[in-house]
Design a protein that fits this description.
UDP-n-acetylglucosamine1-carboxyvinyl-transferase, Chain, 2 domains, 28% helix, binds shikimate-3-phosphate, four-stranded mixed sheet, single chain, 12 helices, alpha/beta, 436 residues
Length: 436
């Protein structure tokens, strides 16, 4: 287990940075590249452990993936094998900490004519897979979740799929994407409806690759057995990674933080809406489009924050940023209530509990409820010892909180940061912090 030690220091007036490529788009670019006919080139792929596990799993199923470091970041070439061209890996596929990698690949393998087993680390082995296994079984695959309570290891016996109409009980892009990826190899039409909109990168990338995908309200329709073309994909900076530094900009006195080339897909940027509602000063500039996704620069400057009630449809659009919203709420006037966020209990950790525990240790007044958090602010923060609980986002949220806390905060289990954000510590130093 490794520790990250963070001590605040004098921050410059203006910090301008970029963040690594979007994790969700990176996974999908590799997977759709593998299932395409022809070559896919990916510029700016996230080199985090989660994505590298997906790349390795695809290699074990016969896909050639070459990662070359270039002047402007890594350039990746995926030689597609066609939508049914994968081969049996011959050994279990290890996905590390990555729920996205495991769930999306369950969908992919369901459409292949072989059996494969997927495993993960201690965090992933606690996460529910029945939500994906169930619709895949309805499509005709046989899926065994061999841990207690439908957890990994998961064995997928693929092949012989037919399209289904599935009403998902959860707004989960991982569930939706697993079904759509299986639907590529299913006869007829696959339809997925969800209770609220989750991130839509799979739909966008399938369309760009030549599949017939229609989105109407909360329903996605895919015509089965398309021929997918190789694509040239440029991965924008991950909003979920930028969010750590944007919240720092909202909270640190005298420091404006600018993050360039950030993904601005509206299914991802709910945090901006929630923070603006609380009074935050967040500006968008240089908004353009890259590979079918809106991208731009976001500047965060400190402004007085007031408490807010956050729930409903906004939650799926900020699902990974709720711990950061809770941190911001510790500095806002009044009682912030976050509701309808029970999904956080089944992330890399039980994030309602781990957020409340970490922020309380740092001096916040934060309580976990059954489906959310109640935060009373403002409270001054102080240095503390924090455990990541195998969760990269808890580790990084605590590191940003540490910028407001006098003294040295020690974060145990900081190695998990590498799953999604290589180079996080270096960027933290740009905010004046002493980081070891
Ligand atoms: C992701 C979807 C989200 C998110 C995760 C990445 C994806 O999970 O929490 O970090 O890439 O599809 P759910 O959609 O299952 O909530």
């Amino acid at each position: 287990m490794s520790d990250l030690r963070v001590q605040p220091g004098p921050a410059p007036e203006r910090v301008r940075l970029t963040v690594p490529g979007d994790k969700s788009i990176s996974h999908r670019a590799l997977i759709l590249g593998a299932l395409a006919e022809g070559t896919t080139t990916i510029c700016g792929l996230l080199q985090g452990e989660d994505v590298l596990h997906t790349a390795e799993a695809l290699r074990r199923m016969g896909v050639e993936i070459v990662i070359e470091s270039g002047g402007e970041g890594p350039m990746v070439t995926v030689t597609g094998v066609g939508r049914q061209g994968l081969h049996s890996p011959g050994c279990p596929l290890y996905l590390g900490n990555s729920g996205t990698g495991m769930r999306l690949l369950m969908g992919v393998i369901a459409g292949q004519d072989f059996t494969a087993t997927l495993t993960g680390d201690e965090s992933l082995e606690r996460r529910p897979m029945g939500r994906v296994a169930e619709p895949l079984m309805q499509m005709g695959a046989f899926v065994e979740c061999r841990g207690p309570q439908a957890t990994p290891p998961v064995t997928v016996h693929g092949g012989g799929l037919r399209g289904i109409h599935y009403q998902s009980p959860v707004a989960s892009a991982q569930v939706k994407s697993a079904i759509l990826l299986a639907g590529i190899n299913a006869a007829g039409e696959t339809v997925v409806a969800e209770p609220a909109r989750s991130r839509d990168h799979t739909e966008r990338m399938l369309q760009a690759g030549g599949a017939q995908v229609e989105v109407e309200g909360l329903t996605v329709r895919l015509q089965g057995e398309p021929t997918l073309r190789g694509q040239e994909i440029t991965v924008p900076g991950d909003f979920s990674s930028a969010a750590f530094f944007l919240v720092a900009g909202c909270l640190l006195p005298g420091t404006a933080v600018m993050v360039d080339n950030v993904l601005l897909n509206p299914t991802r940027t709910g945090l901006l809406e929630a923070l603006r509602h609380m009074g935050a000063d967040l500006k968008l500039t240089d908004v353009t489009h890259s590979a079918g996704e809106p991208v731009g620069t976001i500047t965060a400057t400190r402004a007085p924050l007031r408490a807010a009630e956050v729930g409903g449809k906004l939650i799926p659009a900020m699902i990974d940023e709720v711990p950061l919203l809770a941190l911001a709420a510790t500095q806002a006037q009044g009682e912030t209530v976050i509701r309808e966020a029970a999904e956080l209990r089944v992330k890399e950790s039980d994030r309602l509990t781990t957020t409340a525990t970490a922020l309380s240790a740092l001096g916040g007044e934060v309580e976990a409820t059954e489906d959310g958090l109640v935060i009373t602010g403002p409270t001054p923060l102080h240095a503390a010892e924090i455990d990541s609980h195998t969760d990269h986002r808890i580790a990084m949220m605590a590191a940003i909180a540490a910028l407001l806390a006098a003294g040295e905060t020690v974060i145990h289990g900081a190695e998990y940061i590498a799953t999604s954000f290589p180079g996080f510590g270096e960027r933290l130093r740009e905010l004046g912090a002493e980081v070891t």
